[in-house]
Amino acid sequence: MTTGVRRRMGVEERRQQLIGVALELFSRRSPDEVSIDEIAAAAGISRPLVYHYFPGKLSLYEAALKRAAEDLAARFAEPQDGPLGARLLRVMGRFFDFVDEHGPGFSALMRGGPAVPAGGTCSMSTASATCALIDSVRQAAYDQILSHLGVPDPPARLELVVRTWISLAESTALIWLDGRRVPRAELETQLVQDFAALVAVSAAHDEEMGALLRRALADEPADGPFRELAARLATLVPQGFQADAP
Amino acid sequence: MTTGVRRRMGVEERRQQLIGVALELFSRRSPDEVSIDEIAAAAGISRPLVYHYFPGKLSLYEAALKRAAEDLAARFAEPQDGPLGARLLRVMGRFFDFVDEHGPGFSALMRGGPAVPAGGTCSMSTASATCALIDSVRQAAYDQILSHLGVPDPPARLELVVRTWISLAESTALIWLDGRRVPRAELETQLVQDFAALVAVSAAHDEEMGALLRRALADEPADGPFRELAARLATLVPQGFQADAP
C-alpha cells in the first residue's frame, strides 16, 4: 500500500516504528534529555502525530523500555548443552552487548529511570510499570540460572546467591559503563568466576551448597572459566598466606 | 523549664523528637503506610503542630532518613587495628544490627523509597535528596574500605570490586529481611569472605590486584574469616573437580 514516494503505515506499524526510534534515542542519551520533538524528527513525522500514537513521553518511554526488557530477557536464553561455565560466559557476552548498545539508557534506568511516578517507585506498596519491568528481567535471569542448575525448588542459600549475583552483574555493568576502564571481556569472565566464587563461599557454610557446587563443576573442561579460577586461586591464595605470613 | 506536668520543648528539641518518633515508625512498617496522624499520636502532639515543624510527611521522612543515614555511616567507622577480616566482620555485625532495627524502612528505601519526586529519581540528571543520601552512605562505605586497605588512589579494578561488593552487601541484607531464612551471623561472615573472593577473582586477571590481595592477607590469623575460606576452598574446590571429573 504505497501512496507516491512514502508508504503510509498502519497504526501498529507506526507505533512499532516510533518505539524503535525512541529506544534508539533513549539508549544513546539519558532519557531525560530526549524530547518528543527530537523523536518526531527522527521518525520523520510531526509532533502532533507522535501524540496521536502515544499520549506523552512517559508512555513512549515505557513502551521502549518494554521492548528493551523483552530483548534483554531473550538474550538470557541459552541451550542446556555443554559445561555450565561456558554457557554462563556466552550469556555474559550477550548481556554486555545489550549494555553496550543501550549504555546511557541502561544507566538512567538502573539509577531510577525517568518513568517514576510521583510518590514512589519500586517500594513494596507502589509498584510502577518501570519497577515491574526491571523486576521481570531480574526474575527471567533468576529462572534461567536455576533451570541450568537443574534446581527448580532452590534452598534459601541458593536463592540468595543467585539473586545477589544478579545485582553484582548489574552493578558491574553500570560501573563498566562509567568510563569503560576495565576491558569488558575480562568482566564477562570475572562475573562467571564471581558466580562460582559466591557459590563456593556459601558452600563453605552449608553442605547442600557444597553438593551443588561439586555437581555444577563435574563437567567443567580444563580450560573452562571455573577451573581456570580454581587453578589460579590454588596458587594465589596459599602463596599470599605463605609469602607474607609472620 | 517545666510547666506543670509536661515540659515545654524548644523548636529544635521538638523537631528532633519528631524525627526520632517518625524514624521509629518508618523503620517498623513501610513508610507509605505511616500517616501524619500516627506520628502526631506517637509524639503526643496534635496533627497541626506536626505541620508547624514539618510542612508534610515527605520533609519529615527526609529528615528521618538523614538521621538514619548518619547513624549507618557512623557504624562503618572502625579502628585500623588488627587483621582486616576481623575489622570487616565487626562492621558487618553493626550493618546487620542497623538493617535489623530499620527492616521495613530499609527495604522500602532501597527499593525506591517514598521520597521520590515526580519525574524521576537517582537518574543522572534529577538527583533527589533521597538518592543523594543513599549515595552518600555508599560513598562512606567505599571510603572506609579504601582507607582500611591503605589505598587512597585505587586502580579501576579495585574501585569496581569495592563498589560492586557494596551492592552485594545491600542485596544480601534485603534478601535476608525477606523471611530471614539464613542466619544473619552466617551472612556476616559470608560477606567478609565474599569480599576476599571477589578480590581474588579480580587478582586472577591482574597482578596489581594480586599484590593487593597478598598484602591484605599478610596479617590474617589462622582462625580469621579469610584464612578459614581459603582452607575450605582448598579442600572443597579441588575435591569437587576430582571427585566428579570424567
From TrEMBL, chains A, B:
Signal peptide: none annotated. InterPro entries: DesT_TetR_C (IPR054129), DNA-bd_HTH_TetR-type_CS (IPR023772), Homeodomain-like_sf (IPR009057), HTH-type_TetR-like_transc_reg (IPR050109), HTH_TetR (IPR001647). It holds the Pfam family TetR_N. PANTHER family: HTH-TYPE TRANSCRIPTIONAL REGULATOR RUTR, TRANSCRIPTIONAL REGULATORY PROTEIN (PROBABLY TETR-FAMILY)-RELATED. Residues 35-54 bind DNA. GO terms for molecular function: DNA-binding transcription factor activity; transcription cis-regulatory region binding. This is TetR family transcriptional regulator. The keyword GTP-binding does not apply. Keywords: DNA-binding, Transcription, Transcription regulation.
